[in-house]
């Protein structure tokens, strides 16, 4: 859940290196079982067995096929930003014609006891591979996280290539999950969109693509040298497994390109990242219960809202406002919902069902939401974390957003951005945004 164009030069650095209890959540539910899906692909040519030597091994390098080149990246920037990071890597895999290896999502925005959740428990990997027209692997297909031994690997630090003020690679839990000891080579600054601007972090897909080929790799290595890993060894970036510490702020041409309707990463990758079927079924069950539906009844049209407030309220002081005075008002929320309702009516869809999701902690705000006639799903009351683990509250909220006929999000939020993209693309639904940066008092 990210802050994008606002304070654009700052990528949030989650640098806590406390111990992570590596685990994943499996659970039983009376109707839906949420489990890790096995590594099969709907199209036989994308089957895992065609792209690795065999079952997960103790060392990743032992399971890579000698005639196949791969690409991977690691994540640690909050769930939605990590979705975008993996999307950027998948697009780069298409450009370089390499097989992507997706890691899990890690709890940089949750308590560390949440553990990690495999990418395939969140998204439908078989469908992603089919719709992208390319194989997609997960790290769990390649290496056994529980029995794996430590191995050394050379990677590129894209993070160090974003600014001369960055002196260390981007830290992530993922390498420790799979017992990787990494030696990073800083990316040369000429791989940036604006090489001389240390406050603008964007890297270019076309420049990163060159690292996957001999000439571009050699040119970059002539400008930069590997750093030592924890054992004091230096390794040049792997030629077979092209890897990066992070790939969040990466574009083809424009800054924050995911926000553009022409976004190549969205067009070729993001729109194909559909939900894991089990997770979506669970979300539908929650909605059916919320609306008091029988099992056979379809989910009625509704408008979903993502009102991000928590950490955004901390920014009000930068606009000369006290407390949360810079955040969108209830009146603006009503207006935005009304805009979406009007657009839905033009399509012949009438609904007064509005589902609110928010990180707001103030009980009075929620009481005002109730008085306005809007509803929400209380994950504490539903015991979502107790039943499924901490990952499922934000995951289910994200799925709720995408199942709506229309959506209202919060400007500057990447979670809202992706929700809007999904509703527009998957449901042909109208969207609107709660505006708060540079908004006149009377319009707030």
From TrEMBL:
Residues 1-27 form the signal peptide. The keyword Signal applies. Keywords: Signal. CDD domains: O-FucT_like. This is Glycosyltransferase family 23 protein. It comes from Calocera cornea HHB12733.
